Amino acid sequence: MNTRLVLLWLAVGIPLLWGVLKTLENALKLFH
Amino acid sequence: MLAFLDRKNTVAPAGFNRFMVPPAALSVHLAIGQAYAFSTFNLPLTKLIGINHSAPGDWKLAQVGWTFSIAIAILGISAAVFGRWVETVGPRKSMFTAAVCFGGGFMVSAIGIHLHQIWLLYLGYGVLGGCGLGIGYISPVSTLIKWFPDRPGMATGLAIMGFGGGALIAAPLSFWLMEHFRTAQSNGILETFVTMGVIYFMFMMIGVYAVRVPAEDWKPKGWVAPAQPKPLVTNAQVTLDVAWRTPQFWLLWVALCMNVTAGIGVLGQASPMIQEIFNGRVSPAAAAGFVGLLSLFNMGGRFFWATASDYIGRRNTYMVFFVLGILLYSTVPTIGHLGSIGLFVTAFLIIISMYGGSFSTVPAYLRDLFGTMHVGAIHGALLTAWSAAGVLGPVLVNYIRQYQIAHGVPKTQAYSITMYIMCGVLLIGFFCNLAMRAVEAKHHFRASPKSGTAPNAGVQA
User: Fold this and answer.
1) C-beta of residue B418 within 8 angstroms of C-beta of residue B400
2) By three-state DSSP, how is residue B213 classified?
3) Are B390 and B373 within 8 A, CB to CB?
4) What b-and-e string marks burial along B373-396, b requiring 16 or more CB atoms within 10 Å of the CB?
5) Which residue of A has its CA nearest to B275?
6) Can you tell me the distance from the alpha carbon of B85 to that of B461, in angstroms, rounded to the nearest whole number?
7) Contact status, residue B40 vs residue B175, Cβ threshold 8 Å
8) What is d(CA B70, CA B126) in angstroms, rounded to the nearest whole number?
9) Tens-place pLDDT, residues B107-154
10) Which one, of B180, B170, B181, B168, lies nearest residue B113 by Cα?
11) What residues form DSSP beta bridges with B213?
12) Phi (first) and psi of residue B213, to 5 degrees
């Protein structure tokens, strides 16, 4: 596996995943 | 440094992994997607003097609201104006320019906040940042299409997904930074703007560094362009100057404008809408959760629908948007009367996924109709449909609601007429998409119908 490729995907994937988790956290309030 | 940005220095060496390009594009789109979360700054910008409250002399909410409108208007204009330049200089230089404009926009705005001069906020985030949005949005599109001739929908969907996802990162990041920098003398927004300007510039530079264009004769391993293209798909090329004079361009312009109009009005009014329709049953916090879910589906829809379009075709994908959209919008009033929050939320999540999907499918649709030569520039010109929808959508939703309430309609039912009008809007788009035909050969650039080969001359993308 190409290390640069993995690092690149991690660089964009980690912030995106953080944003998705934060959003889901807030969205749970809709179902309470 | 400047030579590093030149197109000729971005040609990929043999063996380059093309999956390096989507994250490069994503880094730009995730950054500029921050625009969707600009509303998080609205209230703090009205409390620069009063800190905890709006003091006399503080900017008014309506004044601050213009910043986002200017940025979106400039996005459409700059994408149209700079489209040809982006095609000529290549993705690295244009992505770098977008990073300078977008990051610089935050810095100029920060000066405006420091001096309390709102025109600097308009100039910074609105004009300069808006140019960053427009140039950044179209920068990687044609490059991705060239890297993924076998899956152009999936590739552009991945990048444009970032524009939807940018808000998911920017909203919590903005709140966190403002809280972090908050003192007794400042609400922290000045420092937040400076920090975000630096962060976004650096983040976009990842894309500048990683992006590559394929060599002229490059093709994916084992892939051959179909000798008999599918209906509506051309192997020929159409230049920007010719493309915007064809009926296909304007049919797609109207189709995109109608689909975006139907979605954007809802996106802007989602929180008050769900609270008013289900009076007393949905708290402001739950409504904010609904808005978050909409953002998530706006992002996911961009990838899902664009990828699906590689298999079912662009026109069919747009047909799904219009037919399913009409069905859903027409049943929303009934769902509201039934009081089913679950069905209501589900309907709007599907609608908003198709709103995002229309953006991400359109570059591949353009590539099918006009070829790859000027697809980025044509895409830029088509984005003026977004600017038009940005005005039309909220006006339709807000003014019709206002009119209804002023004429005695209860708030819980004030959106019903709007939903039926949205069905009409989608019906116009449906007929435009239905009328779509392949671009006539007389419009092709040095067309050679027998061989179906693409020209090598002209402005090279």
Assistant:
1) yes
2) strand
3) no
4) bbbbbbbbbbbbbbbbbbebbbeb
5) A30
6) 10
7) yes
8) 5
9) 999 999 999 999 999 999 999 999 999 999 999 998 999 999 999 999
10) B181
11) B11
12) -105, 150
User: Domain span at residue A30?
Assistant: 1-32
Residue found under tokens 């916090």: B285
Q: Which structure tokens are listed for B166? A: 């940018």
Overall number of domains in chain A:
1
Q: Is the pLDDT of residue B231 over 90?
A: no
Are the C-beta atoms of B5 and B139 separated by less than 8 Å? no
Tell me: the pLDDT tens digits for B203-228?
A: 999 999 999 999 988 889 888 877 77
Closest by alpha carbon to B170, among B193, B138, B146, B202?
B193
What SS3 state is found at B224? coil
Are residues B232 and B366 in contact, defined by beta-carbon separation less than 8 angstroms? no
CA distances from B34 to B133, B176, B182, B371, B418 (A): 10, 14, 21, 31, 29
The pLDDT of residue B425 is 94
Beta bridge partners of B11: B213
What value of ipTM does the predicted structure carry? 0.94
Using DSSP, state whether B11 is helix, strand or coil.
Answer: strand
Distance from CA of A6 to the nearest CA of B (A): 9
Find tokens 């700079």 and name the residue: B82
Q: Tell me whether residues A4 and B288 touch, CB distance under 8 A.
A: no
Say what the pLDDT of residue B448 is: 53
The interface residues of chain B toward chain A in range 190-219, judged by CB-CB distance below 8 A, are 203, 206, 210
Residue A10 has pLDDT above 80, yes or no: yes
Q: What is the DSSP secondary-structure string of B254-284?
A: HHHHHHHHHHHHHHHHHHHHHHHHTTTTS-H
Which of A9, A20, A22, A30 is the mutation pick for testing B, counting most B CBs within 10 A? A30
- Distance CA(B318)–CA(B329), nearest Å, equals 16
Among B331, B268, B257, B262, CA closest to B295: B268
CA distance B275 to B279: 6
Q: For residues B366 and B255, is the Cβ–Cβ distance under 8 A?
A: no
- Please name the residue that has the structure tokens 């009005």: B265
| Phi, psi angle pair for B11, to nearest 5° | -70, 130
Residue B345 half-sphere exposure, CB side, CA atoms within 13 Å? 22
Q: Does A24 touch chain B (CB under 8 A)?
A: yes
Report the C-alpha gap between B355 and B427 in whole angstroms.
15
- How many angstroms separate the CA atoms of B302 and B290, rounded? 18
Most B CBs within 10 Å, among A6, A9, A10, A12, to test the B interface:
A12
| Helix, coil or strand: residue B340 | coil
Contact B99, B201 (CB under 8 A): yes
Q: Of the candidates A4, A19, A28, which has its C-beta nearest B172's C-beta? A: A19
